[in-house]
UniProtKB/TrEMBL annotation:
Matching PANTHER family: TRANSCOBALAMIN-1, TRANSCOBALAMIN-1/GASTRIC INTRINSIC FACTOR
One of the record's GO cellular component terms: extracellular space
Principal location: secreted
Gene expressing this chain: TCN1
GO term, biological process aspect, one: cobalt ion transport
Source lineage: Eukaryota, Metazoa, Chordata, Craniata, Vertebrata
Taxonomic source organism: Moschus moschiferus
Binding site for cyanocob(III)alamin: 142-146, 186, 236, 284, 379-380, 396-398, 405, 427
Name of the molecule in the record: Transcobalamin 1
Boundaries of every Transcobalamin-like C-terminal domain copy: 349-426
Localization (cell): Secreted
Length: 427
């Protein structure tokens, strides 16, 4: 798992974007909506997400126009409570997502955004990220995914940001778009959305030359996204939804209907494999499948045409209970400069995090660790007391049989005989 990306309008701030000059969207035809029902059902489990971590789901419910009044109210309340009680601890990306979710599609929460001065606070957070880059060799406090969400929210909600900073720091060659030499698709996609907003922003006109430059950045980012395309997906299944949004707004990729069919075909297959089993994963792909982008958040027609899905009311996941819980044996190691090995026994069906806990129980000195809750689940922040640092671009990489995990520690199910490793790494 990579370093945490997430984290994490009243008279106020509505300005009209030049009506979403979409190049070409690729959406699911309503005759195929039943294919999306598993996604909707997963999102409704967001009932169990805590605090600000429900922001992505609330944003999607509102943007797509899924009517679930109770869930919407619950999420909105918990996000506001979380902001009230620990606003200073929230990262730039978390605060930005909170604003996008609360402010999406003209609703009463805009009073809260205004009353709590969230947009100007976000502006200060954005500046702090820039200052950290100036002081720490170009490394932000969090990462470029969060910085991009912050810029997007500032742009959509009439916040302040420096255009010079944007043109300086968002060049597509910036190291922060890369993760161990790999272009980060979701980061690039979010930046493309933010830059497009900045370019079209009617409240803060930019000079033609700057507009041109930003258009070039966006085009280049979108090219890099397309270069990561494989069987209709971009990056991996979790980055594909945001990649689609970026392609909608600044490429003609989906003018070719075969491209759209390929993406939808693969996504439907992945849905049938229950690949999107976290509320956040669902929330990030659904807007694109319904033909929406995050630029629609402040669009006056945002919540028109609400969608009716057949939501299964009383059908929790049919977990077939194993006849008898089996124990499995796995190898586990922690590598810094030296490697500490152990073997632990866990129940069949255990996840990576269970193995870490079992090892910690065996030897606290060698295997102690800490995590931080994010909307993608717990994220490992330290092992043996050694902490990941965004200034040094260090993190704890989780591997199974030599391959980095594509899911978080609490999602990746381990198998008997697996060789699991936590490795001190640089990105
Ligand atoms: C946006 O903010 C500027 C000041 O920064 C203000 O003059 C303008 O009226 C605001 N626009 C809206 C739509 O609130
Ligand atoms: C959905 O597909 C049907 C059948 O192909 C077509 O008639 C209809 O226009 C499509 N709807 C949209 C919104 O594209
Ligand atoms: C919901 O179920 C009804 C009856 O089974 C069906 O006619 C309708 O097409 C379904 N709607 C969606 C969006 O799947
Ligand atoms: C959340 O789930 C619990 C337990 O299933 C249920 O009692 C509660 O009504 C749900 N809340 C909402 C808003 O759906
Ligand atoms: C970023 O913006 C701040 C405030 O406007 C300015 O002082 C600083 O020079 C800018 N840095 C760059 C690299 O553009
Ligand atoms: C944008 O790209 C075009 C074509 O590559 C180039 O001619 C132009 O000079 C670029 N504009 C800026 C401001 O960099
Ligand atoms: C519905 O999805 C199937 C499977 O991807 C596809 O073959 C079909 O063309 C889709 N129908 C419409 C109307 O888009
Ligand atoms: C998603 O679909 C792709 C392409 O068919 C496939 O390679 C991948 O294994 C699928 N992932 C999941 C988790 O279903
Ligand atoms: C690993 O070894 C290098 C070189 O000996 C040393 O500088 C570094 O501090 C060590 N790292 C840790 C986390 O012990
Ligand atoms: C944990 O490992 C260290 C280093 O190998 C060892 O000295 C210590 O005795 C172990 N502690 C336990 C409780 O096994």
């Amino acid at each position: 798992m990579r370093p945490s990306r997430q984290l994490p309008l009243m008279g106020l701030l509505f300005f009209s974007l030049i009506p979403s000059q979409l190049c070409q969207i690729c959406e699911v035809n309503e005759t195929n909506f039943s294919r999306l029902e598993p996604l909707i059902n997963t999102m409704l489990k967001a009932n169990y997400t805590k605090g600000i971590q429900g922001a992505n789901v609330l944003l999607t419910l509102r943007l797509v126009g899924i009517k679930s009044r109770n869930l919407e109210q619950q999420l909105s309340q918990q996000i506001k409570d979380d902001i009230n009680s620990r606003e200073t601890e929230l990262t730039s990306g978390q605060l930005a997502l909170g604003i996008l979710a609360l402010g999406a599609c003209e609703n009463q929460d805009k009073e809260f955004i205004r009353g709590a001065h969230l947009v100007s606070k976000l502006g200060a957070r954005f500046q702090a990220e820039i200052q950290n880059m100036e002081a720490h060799d170009g490394s932000p406090l969090t990462n470029y995914y969060q910085l991009s969400v912050a810029l997007l929210a500032l742009c959509l909600f009439n916040g302040s940001y420096s255009i010079t900073n944007v043109t300086y720091y968002f060049t597509p060659e910036n190291k922060n778009f890369y993760f161990e030499d790999q272009f980060s698709v979701d980061t690039g996609a979010m930046a493309a959305l933010a830059l497009t907003c900045v370019r079209r922003n009617t409240q803060k006109r930019v000079e033609a030359i700057t507009e041109d430059k930003i258009a070039n950045y966006t085009a280049s980012l979108v090219k890099k996204i397309q270069a990561e395309g494989k069987r209709g997906l971009f990056g991996n299944i979790f980055s594909t939804g945001e990649a689609m949004q970026a392609l909608f707004i600044s490429s003609d990729y989906y003018k070719n209907e075969a491209n759209c069919r390929e993406t939808l075909h693969t996504v439907f297959y992945n849905i049938s494999q229950t690949a999107f089993n976290l509320p956040i994963a669902t929330a990030q792909i659904l807007p694109a499948l319904m033909g929406k982008t995050y630029l629609d958040v402040t669009n006056p027609f945002c919540s028109h045409n609400p969608v009716r899905f057949n939501v299964s009311t009383e059908k929790p996941d049919t977990v077939t209970p194993a006849a008898a819980p089996l124990d499995i044996l796995v190898k586990y190691s922690v590598r810094v400069n030296d490697t500490s090995h152990t073997e632990v026994t866990v129940r069949a069906g255990s996840v990576f995090l269970d193995v870490m806990k079992a090892a910690q129980k065996k030897n606290e000195t060698l295997f102690r660790f800490t995590v931080e809750e994010t909307s993608w689940g717990p994220y490992v922040t330290s092992v043996q007391g050694i902490r990941a640092s965004s200034n040094d671009r260090t993190y704890w990489k989780l591997l199974s049989n030599g391959q980095p995990l594509s899911q978080g520690a609490a999602s990746h199910v381990v198998q008997n005989g697996d060789n699991l490793e936590v490795r001190w790494s640089k990105y």
